[in-house]
Amino acid sequence: MAKKYDFLFKLLLIGDSGVGKTCLIIRFADDNFNSTYISTIVPGVLPSCIDFKVKTIDVEGKKVKLQIWDTAGQERFKTITTAYYRGAMGIILVYDITDEKSFENIQNWMKSIKENASSGVNQMLLGNKCDIEAKRKVSKEAGEKLAKDHGIRFFETSAKSSINVEESFIGLARDILLRTSKKSGPAGREVKLTSTEKKKAASKCVLL
Ligand SMILES: Nc1nc2c(ncn2[C@@H]2O[C@H](COP(=O)(O)OP(=O)(O)OP(=O)(O)O)[C@@H](O)[C@H]2O)c(=O)[nH]1
C-alpha cells in the first residue's frame, strides 16, 4: 500500500510538570483544550508513562507525519534517559510564562538534551500560557534572549486560546525538513518504533 506521508519526524516535548505540554499536544493534534488537570505523572502507579500523538501536516508541499511524544516534568528530569531521546528529530522545550522556576529549569533541560539527544537535533523554546498576561512572571524579551543565545526558534503560545500552537509545530517541522533533506536527500530520515514500543504504544502508554 502506498505511504500516506513523505516524512515521519519524531518530536519530544520536555519541560517542568504543569507547564502545559500535554495541552499543547492536544491543541495541535486534536484542536481541543481541557482545563481539568490530570498530570502525566500518576504517583506510584505509572512513574514513567510516556504517550504520543500523531498528526500529518503539509510542509513545503510534502506530507509530514509528526509523532509527538509527551512526558511528565521536573520530578523526573534526572531519570529521562537516552531511550526517550532516541530517534528524536525535534525537541520542544516548554516553560510557563507565569512560573519563573519553569523558565530557570529550561537550562537544566537543555543540559539534558546535550547529554542524551543526538547532536544537531532541532530545538525550539515555547513560553506557554500567554493568555494569562496578568500573572506573567517571565518577560517575552527574556524568552527571546534565551532562544537567541542558543540559536533556536521561540514562540509564546497558549494551548488554551490557541495562540501560535500550529505555527510553532509547523515551524519546527520545516526546520527539520530543511536539515534532513540537505543531509540525506529527498528520502529524508524515518523513525521506526521497535516492536516493544509498538506493543506498548498500542495501549497509548509507553513505559521506558
Ligand atoms: N491558562 C492556560 N492554562 C493552560 C495552558 N496550557 C495548559 N494549561 C493548564 O495548565 C495545567 C497543566 O497542563 P498540562 O498540559 O497537563 O501540563 P504538563 O506540562 O503536560 O504537565 P505534566 O503532565 O505534569 O508534565 C492544566 O490545568 C491546564 O489546563 C494555557 O495555554 N493557558
Automatic annotation (TrEMBL):
GO terms for molecular function: G protein activity; GTP binding. Belongs to the small GTPase superfamily. Rab family. One of its GO terms (cellular component) is recycling endosome membrane. PANTHER family: LD44762P. The keyword Transport applies. It is an enzyme of class 3 (hydrolase). Keywords: Cell membrane, GTP-binding, Lipoprotein, Membrane, Nucleotide-binding, Prenylation, Protein transport, Transport. Coiled coil: none annotated. It is a lipid-anchor. It comes from the Eukaryota. One of its GO terms (biological process) is protein transport. Its EC number is 3.6.5.2. This is Ras-related protein Rab-13. It is found in: Cell membrane; Cytoplasmic vesicle membrane; Recycling endosome membrane. It catalyses: GTP + H2O = GDP + phosphate + H(+). It comes from Paramormyrops kingsleyae.
